[in-house]
Amino acid sequence: MDIKMLLTIFVVNFSYITLNTIRFMLTMKGYRLIAPLVSMAEITIYVLGLSMVLNRLDNPLNLVVYALGYAVGISVGIKIEDYLALGYIMVTAILPSSTEQLNLPEILRDHGYGVTQSFGAGREGERMILEILSPRKNERSLYKLINEQEPRAFIISYEPKFISGGFWTKKVRKRNN
């Protein structure tokens, strides 16, 4: 058993899959310049790792280590993407109408969030509806701020694919270039 070869196979596939996961996330978020550059490194590493395993199929442990590198690479790639928190989220917070006196929209705006306020009708009466745009890196602090002000808030979030107009447009364009 060649430990050095097994370690090399693991590291090569781990690196490939980590880059693959990050490249996929960059592609989905619209980073049109960096995603192809990452893919160049990714495919080079992939060919190297695959050839190492295919040239040594006589040892099944090589394939097992290759698969282990794949699994660990996905996990680490996801953690890196979570850390980078690329992109934006759109949060809808639906609040009881009694929340109006809290002035939550202004509190959120003072913290730098883009907020659009409207009103709707729910099962138990009128509701204040807040549409909030935020960088993903601020997601958890946004939820915390909303819940501190109104623990009864119903919160839904999603990632917008396209953003145009409003005071955030210039910030978004600068970050995507």
Specify the number of helices. Answer: 6
Name of the CATH first level of the largest domain: Alpha Beta
Report, as a whole number of angstroms, the end-to-end distance. Answer: 49 Å
Topology order in helix (H) and strand (E) letters: HHHEHEEHEH
Rg result:
23 Å
Mean of all residue-level pLDDT scores = 87
- Order of strands in the sheet with most strands: 2-3-1-4
Shape: elongated
Low-confidence stretches: none
Q: Can you tell me the number of structural domains? A: 2
Q: What can be said about the biggest beta sheet?
A: 4 strands, antiparallel
| Architecture per CATH nomenclature, i.e. the level-2 architecture of the largest domain | 2-Layer Sandwich
Strands, count: 4
What class do helices, strands and sheet pairing give?
A: alpha+beta
Q: Determine the CATH topology of the largest domain.
A: Alpha-Beta Plaits
Fraction of helical residues = 55-70%
Strand content: 15-25%
